[in-house]
Amino acid sequence: xxxxxxxxHSISIQALPEKVYEALTDWAIRAxxxxxxxxxxxxxxKAFLNQKVFFKVAGFLPYSxxxxxxxxxxxRRFYMEYLGNPLRGRGAVEIAKEENGSRVDFHxxxxxxxxxxxRIYFAVGFGMRxxxxxxLKTLRMLKEYLEKTNVK
Length: 152
Description:
This protein is α+β, with helices and mostly antiparallel strands.
């Protein structure tokens, strides 16, 4: 098993980068369009530096994770740090203007499973598969929310 994992998943969305950034970093808005995940956050619903955010993912094997916002560059990108069990490491979301909207890239820059159960889950191949499925689901839901509500 590698000591850490990296990945990038992308999607194009017909919405301005400012609207994409807002839908991803205002937790109250994100909670509206991202079904299947319960979110709690410290302080204001709009992301701020060092803010902690807690996620509880429903499903066959429910799990929870938390992260800290480690950098904000509106409306182009934000950085996060996973705080441990089941994951520790860094991630980022980049938003680039395209001709018909925006391109969104979600990066796992260096993420490690933490705890024996998480390590086993990743060692047998389920960790990256679950990450890919959940990330693509989130990106599709974001696209649907922004394009369906015609938020430009």
